[in-house]
Amino acid sequence: MDPLTPTDSPATDSPAFDSQATDSPATDSPATRVRVVLGEAARARKAGPRAELAEQSQVGEALLRGLIRAQLGLALRLAAVVAVGLGGLPLLFAVAPSVAGVRTFGISLPWLLLGLAAYPFLFTVGFAYVRLAERTEADFTDLVERPES
Amino acid sequence: MPHSPYALPAIVVVILATLAIGAYGLRLARTTSDFLVASRAVSPSWNAAAISGEYLSAASFLGVAGLVLKNGVDMLWYPVGFAAGYLALLLFVAAPLRRSGAFTLPDFCQLRLRSRRLRKLAAGFVVFIGWLYLVPQMQGAGLTLQTVAGGPYGLGALVVAAVVTGNVALGGMRAITFVQAFQYWLKLTALAVPVIFLLLHWQADGRPAMVTPEGQTFVSATSVEVDHAATLTLVEPTVITVRGTLDRSPVDDTVLVPAGAHEVTAGTSLGFPAGARVPDVSGANAAGGLHWLLPGGQGSGGLFAAYSLILATFLGTMGLPHVLVRFYTNPDGASARRSTLVVLGLVGLFYLFPTMYGALGRVYAPQLLMTGDTDAVVLVLPGAALGGGIAGQLLGALVAAGAFAAFLSTSSGLLTSVAGVLSTDVVGRGSVRDFRIAAAVGGIVPLILALRIAELDVSLVVGLAFAVAASSFCPLLVLGIWWRGLTGVGAAVGVMTGGGAAVSAVLITVFGGPRPGWTGALLSHPAAWTVPLAFAVMVGVSLATRHRVPADVGQTMLRLHTPDGLRL
User: Fold this and answer.
1) Which residues are CB-contacts of B299 (< 8 A; sequence separation ≥ 6)?
2) At what angle do helices B500-512 and B527-544 cross, to 10 degrees?
3) Closest-CA residue in chain B for A134?
């Protein structure tokens, strides 16, 4: 599935590949130890997604376009939530004036929505965006930094 | 309105504290980098408080409450839009802009589109928007000093201009980061503490209605000074203590004035007893009765104005020059995103309060509806509701101090960015000395404007500044960050068309006065047509000049969008 995987590089199977150096060595029994030839590792690395990105090869471009499209799509979807949730209110009040007359907790609905509820709503959307955008970036980083397999 | 004896000392304390914190920052500012970007060493919580402190201006502190008092629920779109602007900034701009490494909008133009000419054009717009936004801050300072201490209008404007120019010129960004973080908390306290007392007082009064179908009444005996000749319409015969000229004859007595229209001249003092109905005043143009309570009321211009306002405030924030400069002080894109989220929370928390002042002002300060000084409601309310006792005076002083913090912090941020652009793109080459000269020039121009046009509505000018920013820099940033096809020519023509149309609408409204009918609505609320126009022109011209797409656009996009940890 991954067009980036070099097929001619045995060294990329190695768990000792340097981007995995953070993996806990405690789980590695001596039996799983694999011989690494530095030259091969360097060659594999050069052809990896990281290099594809940095060199802006066609594959790198495709990766980057995918990331930008994902982030833009996320931003647009959340913007649409706000456009409907808040932007729909003037239209709603104009089309159905009776809604504007509803009173909740002794305060009329438009005051409650615009004076109070709008701010937690905006913050929640912002919070969701930060979480999701960071997840997209983490996935992208994993994709780029993971060893070839 | 009696002046609080504590107000002037409180304002002096805020100014001295601002100068002291600025001087502390100055000791730390040694290099040009310290001056301009605080060496990027500002922690996220300080930075978020500083961004919020910088953002909450005279329009937020005074203007929103005044608009709510005057026109009611429709005006809540201003604070909602001011907060939502940060969400738009977070969604579309924050992280990529920080990663671009651009310090100002002109920098972004050059980095992304490699166009010196576009850079100069953007510099021109930054200075225009900065000055347009500085004028109401200085007006607000003049109004505050006039209201709380009876000082002359020009003095407040002069004081703010002098303190801010001095502080920015000497301390630069590092100093104002500390100053502004301090000022956010001061502003929040200055609105939140008095409002607790006001709400308790309102509760103790048996929660008098903010709106009655037949109109407002004075809850206590109130004296109104008439500033401009006006026609009063009394709903019922009222006993008024008149000192001045009523219906063209001099009066100095307590008289029973019959229902109907009456003329009063400027300088007349009218004393209303408690329980008297508040008369309608020609020219004050306030929404009355149920119109105030319900959306789409009079004075709002209907759905078109509402949506235009939403568009301008939602999209204008990202184009304000002092907002963008702050992003550079974050260490990377992810932290820029997080501090923007904190800012959204802090700003939203703040905006809960001006609404309450506007609504309570309806009960306790209805005389402002007669005089038209609705922008003063936040300043007047503590004294008007809680009386002349020590509590009312101290809270009044706290509010005045908060108002000054608002003018000082927003003006500092604006002036820093205007001076930054002036010193790098217009005069000089960005040395510390150039920056200081530019700060002085940048501060004097809006001061002169503020002294000349005292009559302009604070929030009107701010709304127009947002409209210009939304129709020039918003499309430039959004398309520049997300669309490879943008060209320098397309961006320049788009900024000139959209921004130019908005600027023309601003100038016609500001110097020609509001116009009636559809032309008036299109000119006083330009964003609804200038923003789509700017986007359309930018995309169209870029497509037509496809061969001018910068060769390194892929490299730029890579820098803008790859996660910070990757370090390619």
Assistant:
1) B70, B71, B285, B286, B287, B291
2) 150
3) B334
Give counts: helices (H), strands (E), chain A. 7, 2
Q: Which residues on chain B are in Cβ contact (under 8 Å) with A94?
A: 295-296, 303
- What would the two tokens of residue B160 be? 């703010």
Distance CA B78, CA B91 (A): 20
Asked if B566 and A145 come within 8 Å (Cβ–Cβ), the reply is yes
Q: Which of the two residues, B96 and A60, has the higher pLDDT score?
A: B96
Which residue in the set A94, A114, A125 is minimally distant from B80, CB to CB?
A: A114
Task: Report residue B369 CA to chain centroid gap.
Answer: 21
- What is the spatial distance between Cα B157 and Cα B142, in angstroms, rounded to a whole number? 5
State whether residue B92 sits within 8 Å of chain A by CB: yes
Q: How many CB atoms lie within 10 A of CB B498?
A: 30
Strand B249-257 and strand B222-225: the pairing is unpaired
Contact (CB, 8 A) for B229 and B261: no
In this structure, the number of other CB atoms found within 10 A of the CB of residue B412 comes to: 30
> A128, A99, A129: which is closest to A113 by C-alpha?
A99
pLDDT tens for each residue of B164-190? 888 888 765 556 677 788 889 999 999
Nearest-by-CA chain A residue for B359: A111
Please report, to the nearest 10 degrees, the dihedral formed by the alpha carbons of residues B60, B62, B63, B65 taken in order. Answer: 90
Task: For residue B174, give the amino acid letter.
Answer: R
Cα(B396)–Cα(B194) distance, integer angstroms: 8
With respect to CATH, is domain B7-26+36-205+290-454 assigned 1.20.1730.10? yes
Amino acid B1: pLDDT? 46
CA B170/CA B432 separation, integer angstroms? 9
**Minimum CA–CA partner of B564 in chain A:** A137
Cβ separation B307–A90 shorter than 8 A: yes
C-beta separation of B527 from B466 below 8 A = yes
For chain A, say whether B345 makes contact (Cβ under 8 Å).
yes
Contacts of B93 (CB under 8 A, 6+ apart): B318, B477, B478, B481
Query: Chain B: residue nearest A60 by CA?
Result: B558
Interface list for B 219-248 with A (CB within 8 A): none
Render pLDDT for B419-460 as a digit per residue (tens, 0 to 9).
Answer: 888 888 877 676 778 888 888 999 999 998 888 776 666 667
B341 contacts A126? CB cut-off 8 A: yes
Give the chain B residue whose CA is nearest to the CA of A118.
B80
C-alpha B502: how far from chain center:
18
What SS3 state is found at B545?
A: coil
- Please give the pLDDT value at position B278: 80
Task: Show the DSSP H helices in B76-152 as ranges.
Answer: 77-92, 94-100, 105-113, 116-149
CA–CA separation, B216 and B364 (whole Å): 10
Task: Report which residue type is found at A116.
Answer: L
Burial category of B263 from C-beta neighbours within 10 Å (exposed 0-12, middle 13-18, buried 19 and up): middle
**C-beta of residue B180 within 8 angstroms of C-beta of residue B409:** yes
CB-CB neighbors (< 8 A) of A145 in chain B:
566
Give the minimum alpha-carbon distance from B310 to chain A in angstroms, rounded to a whole number. Answer: 8
Query: B87 and A126: CB-CB below 8 Å?
Result: yes
Report whether B291 contacts A100 (CB < 8 A). Answer: no
Would you kindly state where each structural domain of chain B is located, as residue ranges? Answer: 7-26+36-205+290-454, 222-277
Report the gap between the CA of B152 and the closest CA in chain A (Å): 35
